[in-house]
Amino acid sequence: MRSVLISVLCFFAFPAFADFTDSVQTADSTKIFKKGLELGVTTALSGTSPNWSGGASNNLSGNFFIRAFYNVKLDHQTWDNVLKINAGAISSSMQDNYGQQFRSTRKNMDNVFMDSKYGYSFEKLRWLSGYGGLNLQTQLLPGYTYSRNANGREDKNMVSSFLSQGSLMSAIGFEAKPSERFYARLALFSLKQTFMLNQSLYDKRNQSTIAGVNKGQYIRSEQGFQIQTGFNREFNFNKQILIRTNYLGFIPYNYKKNPSPLDSRIDLGLSVKLTRYLNFNYTLISIFDKDLARPGENAWQNSWVLGLGFLYKL
User: Does the structure show a pLDDT above 90 at 288?
Assistant: First the structure.
């Protein structure tokens, strides 16, 4: 837990004391700062009349996202930071066994992704650098499974919460960045720490092991390799189109004996600017981790949002 708090504090503390100008000229070099913040909201409302032959329903959904970045470059040194938060819920009108209406509200996306990387480029190969990085992934709100009781009302059982499960990965390796649009990282040493801070979930889920962490423990540590690559590109046709992709993979050193030999996360974002503040957005988060899946379940987990929304950039 201490390592998580230190990482988060370092991530947010630096901008508070740094110079926020775009560039600062020193005696023999130029320090360049790049920063940005995107705030987005997507909402949707759908419904039918009570006599709709296919069955009446009324749904309201809402999602918001935050993407903030803060990058510093000074000669051979770089420090790149990004924070992404996606959260949303859907509320549906339902009917119990006695014909009484009630609303069911469930989250459909909840994810926090933070990545911080310090790099030092080589003299003759400026596009290649050694780096050290931290990566934090978790969720903000509790997650539930849902069922109907004898009255037709909804029952829910908590199965996840903040840092339960969550992960912190530290890595040391090499980064290739031939352009601002693309980067690829290979960490020869990476420490992955999986957290299960909410110990009550073991009883709620009737499991002795969750995400590879045994009951009574709070952290599981693994050593291995880390692979990370990202691509972003803007296209200007009749409409401005922005595509962002990111892949993060972890391979434990003992992958042949490990129940989850390759953990993967894929992020895909597509944004089409329709007006100054109105955008068409598609966001996909796809995770493959056998430790997170129950026996017999598919290890791929997907969460996505598609819709029109408001986007504001700072």
Answer: yes
pTM beyond 0.85, yes or no: no
- Sign of dihedral through CA atoms 255, 135, 201, 292? negative
Candidates 198, 228, 232, 231; CA nearest to 215 is 198
CATH of the structural domain 2-313, one choice from 2.30.110, 2.60.40, 3.40.30, 2.40.230: 2.40.230
C-alpha distance from residue 72 to each of 237, 244, 250 (Å) = 31, 21, 27
Rg (CA), the chain: 22
Query: What ranges do the domains of the chain cover?
Result: 2-313
Q: Which of the pair, 210 or 20, is modelled with greater confidence?
A: 210
Write out pLDDT tens, residues 191-243: 999 999 999 999 999 999 999 999 999 999 999 999 999 999 988 877 789 99
Q: Is pLDDT above 60 for 158?
A: yes
| Peptide bond preceding 240 in cis form (omega within 30 of 0) | no
